[in-house]
Structures are given as structure tokens and as C-alpha cells.
Amino acid sequence: MVLSAVNELHSHVTADQIYHYIKAKYPSIGRGTVYRNLGILVEEGKVRKVEVPDGSDRFDFTLENHYHVECVKCGGVFDVDMDVISELEKKIKDTHGIQYLSYDIFFKGICPECQKKEIKDV
């Protein structure tokens, strides 16, 4: 049910958005059930968790490595249409003895909807 919701919503949704989406169809579902199952789906590699700096984690239906952009106006998170920089970890110069495991590249911008609102407000 949770995996279906992530795929049906087809965007970078928060756990709370997923919960409300499922609750509309299944009113007896508990928030803890949704959150717990999201954690399991992330561990199993069926859903990608996107940790948003200074924001709520998002859950992504796209599992391949890719980059994201966050709208600084509305907080929306979107995919960036570009090739992944291969072997980026190998290019990092480490002077602190850190073993790098993964990375997220997060851009900031203004989404088309917020750009339209800015034009209307002018």
C-alpha cells in the first residue's frame, strides 16, 4: 500500500503526504504503520529516501542515482535532468581519514509555478 502510494503520487513526497494519501482511502491506517513501512521500503531499496537540507525527508520513486533541486519559494523537490557524475567519490581529496559511502547533490532554484506567481505579484 505504501509503495503503491509513492508510485501513484509520482513526486518527491513527505511521509506525512503519503500518510494522508493512504488515509483518504483507508481511514483506519495509522501514521506509525506508514512511517514504519517507508523505513522498510528504503532498507529494501524499493524507495529512495531524499534527505532535504533544512526540510522534511522526501521519498522518491526513482531508484537510480540522480540529483535534485529544491524550490526556495515553495519547498518543492524536483529531479535535475543531467547525467550522474561518474566516480565522483574517487575524485574527492580526503585529508581527514573519512571513508565516503554516498552523496547527494542538491541544487536550489525557483520552480516554474513560483516563477509565475512572482510575475503576477509584480
TrEMBL record:
InterPro entries membership: FUR, Fur_C, WH-like_DNA-bd_sf, WH_DNA-bd_sf
Cofactor note: Binds 1 zinc ion per subunit.
Protein name as catalogued: Fur family transcriptional regulator
GO molecular function terms attached to this record: DNA-binding transcription factor activity; transcription cis-regulatory region binding; zinc ion binding
Family of the protein in this entry: Belongs to the Fur family.
Name of a matching Pfam family: FUR
UniProt xrefs under Gene3D superfamilies: 3.30.1490.190, Winged helix-like DNA-binding domain superfamily/Winged helix DNA-binding domain
Lineage, opening ranks: Bacteria, Bacillati, Bacillota, Clostridia, Lachnospirales
Binding site for Zn(2+): C71, C74, C111, C114
Cofactor(s), by name: Zn(2+)
One GO term of the biological process aspect: negative regulation of DNA-templated transcription
Entry keywords, A to Z: DNA-binding, Metal-binding, Repressor, Transcription, Transcription regulation, Zinc
